Prior knowledge:
Blueprint: H1 10-29, H2 31-43, E1 47-53, H3 60-64, E2 71-76, H4 86-101, E3 106-114, H5 130-148, E4 155-163, E5 168-172, E6 178-180, H6 192-199, H7 205-225, E7 240-244, E8 256-259, H8 267-282, E9 291-299, H9 304-327, H10 329-332, E10 335-343, E11 348-356
Parallel strand pairs: 1-2, 1-3, 3-4, 7-8, 7-9, 9-10
Antiparallel strand pairs: 4-5, 5-6, 10-11
Helix pairs in contact: 6-7, 8-9
Amino acid sequence: MPTPLHDRPISNRIKALQALSRQHAANYCSSSATLARERYLAQHPTRLLVLKCMDGRIHIPHATRTPLGIITPFRNLGGIFNLGWPYLGELITEAVAEGIRAGHGSLLMITYHFSRGERLRGCSGFGCDAGAALAHARQIRAQAEQLFGQDHQHVYPLVCGFETDTDALILHGEGDDTLDIGNIDAADGDSLGARVAALCPDMPADIRRDLLPLMEGNLAHASSLRGVARHLDIEHREWVICVGRGFDFLHLPNTALIVGPYGPDLAEPIGTAADIIDANMAAGRIPEDGFMLLASTPFQAVGVDRARAELKSHFLADFATKVIHQRHPWLAERMHRHTAVVHWPTRRLDLIDTRSGGSR
C-alpha cells in the first residue's frame, strides 16, 4: 500500500503537488476540454461566480459535472469574505461588468459547507458551526443586494450549502425554504426546473436556465455516490500554506490552507494558517521535516501584466514569510518557499523563485 502523501518527505510532497499542477494545466488545455468549454458557454453564457472555503472537498466543478474553466472561484479560509474589501469588490464587479457588456447576467453562488454525519467534519473557520456559516453566507448575500440591486435582475446572489458527506448542494430561498439535492431521487431530475422556480421566483429565466445544468449535474453526481463507501477524513493534516490566487489544481482534502489576497488584513489569516501547520507537526499528523509556502498570482498576457503578477507574488511571499517568522520562528526554519505566477488562459503554474530553511 503506497505511503499517504502527508506522510512522505517534504521534497516528495512538493514534487507531487507540482506534478498535480502540471496535470491540471494539461487537462485544461486539452482539445476536448477546450471544445467542451466553448460549447458550454455558447449554450449557457451566464457568468458563474462562486465564493467558497479553501477546503479541498469543496470542488464545485467536479460536484456539478461542469467543464473546467466555466466557474470563477474565490477561495479563502473558512469561506469568509466581505464585499466591502476593496480588491474583492473590484474583482467581482469587473467579472459582472464583463458579463453585462456581453449581454449576460451573473449568478453569484455564496457557499458554506457542513457534514450531516459528523459535526467535526464541518468548516473549522466557523468552529464547525453550520448555523454560523449559513448566517455569514446570508450576510454576503445582503451585501451583494446592496451592491448590485435587490431586484436580482442582473446579478442573482444565491446562498448554497455543500454537504461534504454526499457532495450534495442545498439551495436556500427566502426564509427557511431550501432545495436539497441530497433528498431528491435521480429519477426526479425533470422536476428540478419547477423546484428552482418555486424556490427562487424572482430569478431571471436566463439565469435559472443556466443554473439548471449545475443542479442536474450535482444530482447525477450525488446519486452516483449513494451507497458507495467513502473515506471521510476528519483529521487535519495540512502541510501547505497558499497565499494569493490561481490554486484551481488544489482540491486535495486536508492538504492546503488557502489565504486569498482579498481582505485588508492578510497577517491574521496567514498567522492562523501557520498556527494550524504548527499544531499538525506538534501532534505528529505531518512530518517535522518541513511545510510548503506557495505564493501565486494569475496573469493574462506577457509583458507588463506578467511583470506585475511577479511583483505581487514576491510581495505576498515576503509578507507571509515575515508573518510566519514573527509568529512561529521554529516553524519558519522548516519552510520551503515557492513563488509562482499562473498563466490564466492555460492554468500553467510557473515557478519564479524557491527558497528553503527559513530564508527571507
